[in-house]
Every structure is written in structure tokens, then in C-alpha cells.
Amino acid sequence: MGSISHDEDKLPTLRWGIIGAGLISSWFVKDLVLSRPEAQAKHIIAAVGSSSREKGRAFVAEHAPSIDPAIYGSYEEVYADPNVDIIYVGTPHSFHKKHALDAIKAHKHVLCEKPFTINAHEASEVLSAAKQEGVFIMEAMWLRFRPLVAELRKQIFDKKVIGDLRRTFCDFGLAMDLGSLPPDSRLKSQALGAGSLLDIGIYSLTWGLLTLDNKTGDEAEHVDIAGMQTIRDGIDITSTMVLKYPNNGRQGVLTSTLDLQSGSTFCRIEGSEGYIEVSGIAPSLPSAFTVHRTGTKGSETKSSDDKQSTEEVFKFEDPGFGFYFEADAVALDIAAGRLESEVMPHAETLRVLKILDEVRRQGGARFPQDVA
Ligand SMILES: NC(=O)C1=CN([C@@H]2O[C@H](COP(=O)(O)OP(=O)(O)OC[C@H]3O[C@@H](n4cnc5c(N)ncnc54)[C@H](OP(=O)(O)O)[C@@H]3O)[C@@H](O)[C@H]2O)C=CC1
Ligand SMILES: O=C1OC[C@@H](O)[C@H](O)[C@H]1O
Q1: What residue spans in the chain does CATH classification 3.40.50.720 cover?
Q2: Counting atoms of ligand 1 from 1, which one is nearest the CA of 51?
Q3: DSSP-derived secondary structure for 90-124
């Protein structure tokens, strides 16, 4: 773990070691090499580790031809590279625990793709190891770092634009032709953690958690959970979670499926004085939300002359995908000596996995990693 510079005129610099030259790593490196006037940090892709050097070379040539990282034919060489400060784990879910633990053992910081691990038991093990080693670790739930999410939460919790919150609906559906994929595809193989819930249902859950409670992690309110799953060939094709906050009666109906494509307006947040619709390419890539205010209907607090319905659109045109928001936040945390993120703290990662565990316990999807 190298030292990271941060002074008045200089942005903090973070040197990344990428492991796994697959789809998500390609998106991540493309975003990190983008030139951005608003950048909060300088990101250097110092190393790429892949199952073969050839694959690593082809990955860099295709996705980041302007850079010249060390390219390794193993992950171990990335962990051992003294020019790497932080490991980005971009491998399938079932490897997150091992790869994060290996990186921690080498005293590297870690940004690990979602879901952090297969279940909460694995997550506790990884988080304890990071704490013991004194390294930063975070689940790469990039959605939480988007300015759109910060603005949306400001509107609903600070400005209370839709009054008292009542319900959130969110659906993430991908029409996957699973039959056409090889059995060892991460989207199909139970051993690799496949299924809609951990891959995309985690975003629907995140939208629910972010919009029904303004607190996170240990400070968040207790929530009751109901889960239903449709299992095919050992993996959940469709999952539905219902969250209920016993203190205020708020509910979230949060769904995922690999059978159908969800629409571009994938989330609806309802309150006593209106509703908000969130849209974009997918729940992982929101680009706008619209606040529909229905005036005083259902509210006991507004005066009777304030009954006009209004509509306000908030648009966010971020370059690239938007992974740099989480990457900048990580760089700032590490430069400040923090070992966890306030936006995605360890306790929130654990809470999310405990909810997903409970949905699977009720719904039936199991993984070899689950303890009885
Ligand atoms: N934040 C986001 O928007 C997204 C996050 N993800 C997350 O990223 C992770 C990886 O997903 P994705 O990039 O789509 O997966 P891919 O299958 O495209 O890539 C995963 C890479 O992991 C490495 N790997 C190591 N062991 C195995 C193995 N046994 N089988 C397959 N791959 C292996 C391979 O890299 P190599 O051969 O180079 O070592 C492979 O290319 C998942 O956990 C997923 O949830 C995925 C997509 C979007
Ligand atoms: O995180 C993700 O978001 C986009 C999906 O296409 C992908 O399967 C998933 O891992």
C-alpha cells in the first residue's frame, strides 16, 4: 500500500490494480481514464491482472489504449505490485471473498464489485480481515455515489417535495437468453452466484433503502422483509422483496427478473403530496427523475390555497458510465486516512446482504457458500 499525496493544489492520486479482465472491469477502466473537469482525484491504472497476459494485453488495447499499466497473467502479481494502492475486484460474485481476502493479506485497499460477497457470513469475514489489516474496503455499489441520488434524497428527505413518504416500487429486469449461454457463465452458474437477486435485485433493493429511510447502516431503521422467488435450474429467475418499516408503515416493493426487460421508468416513489419517477437505461444507470406534486391531497400540513399540481424534471448527463463518482470518493477517503466510506459503510454492506439472505431463505435460492 503506497502513500497517497493530497495537498491544497493537488488532487489525491490513487493507483489501481484491476483484477479480472471482464465486462465490468472494462467499464470501470474506461471511466477512470476519462478526462473530467470536475474530477476530485487522479486515477492511475497501475496494473491489470488476468488469467493470461494475452487476455490482459487485449483488454488494455481495447478499453484503455492510452495507458500503459503493468499487465500480469495472474492476480497474485497484482497484489504483490508495490505500485498498486488499491485492488478493484471485478470477478464473478463467488470469487469476491477470496480475491478481497488475498488483496487484504497483501495489505492493499479494496474496492469490490457488488454483491460484496455471496452472503452476510462471507461479508463479515472479509470486513473483519480488512479491519484487522487496517486497509480501506468498500462494496462498489456505484449507484449510491451518483449526484442524481444525492439530489433525489435532498428532494425527498430535506425538501419533502412529495410530503410523507409512503411507498417505493423498483424493478430491474433483463431479458437474458440464458439458454444460449455456456453452463459456466456467471449469469447461469449457481456455483458462480448466478440469479437475478444478487446481480440486479440488489439495485432494486438499494433504491428502496435509499428512498424509504434517510439513514444508512447501523443508523438505519429496522425493516421487516418478505421474499418470493421463482427458481429455474437452481437459480432465481425472478425475485420479489417487500420491505415494511414498522415504525412508519412505509413499504418497498422491489423486484428483479432475468426473463423480461424492465421499462425505462423503473422506480416510483410515492408520498402524501405526490410521486417521483426515476428513469434511465437501467436502475444501475439512472439519468433523470421527475417530481410530480399533487398539491395538498392527503396532507394535513398544507394550506388549502396550495393545491396546484406541478411537474419538475431533474436531468443528469454524466459522461461515460459514472464509475468515477465512486472512485473519486474512495480516493478522497483513502487520502484522508478513512478505512470505510460514509456513503457505503461496512454496516450497510452487511445489512444489504442480510436482507438478501432473508429473501433467499424465504424464496428458496441457495448457494454452496451458504451455511446451514
Ligand atoms: N457495477 C456494475 O454496473 C456491474 C457490476 N458487475 C459485477 O462485476 C462482477 C463481474 O461481472 P462481469 O464483469 O459481468 O463478469 P465477466 O464474466 O464479464 O468477467 C469476469 C472476469 O472474472 C475473471 N474470472 C476469474 N475466475 C473466473 C471464472 N471461474 N469464471 C469466469 N470469470 C472468472 C475473468 O477474468 P480473467 O480471465 O481476465 O481473469 C472474467 O473475465 C460481478 O460480481 C457483477 O455483479 C457486473 C456488471 C456491471
Ligand atoms: O451490475 C450490473 O448491472 C448491469 C447488468 O447488466 C449486470 O448484469 C449487473 O451485474
Answers
A1: 13-143+324-341
A2: 39
A3: -S-GGGHHHHHHHHHHTT-EEEEESSSSSSHHHHH
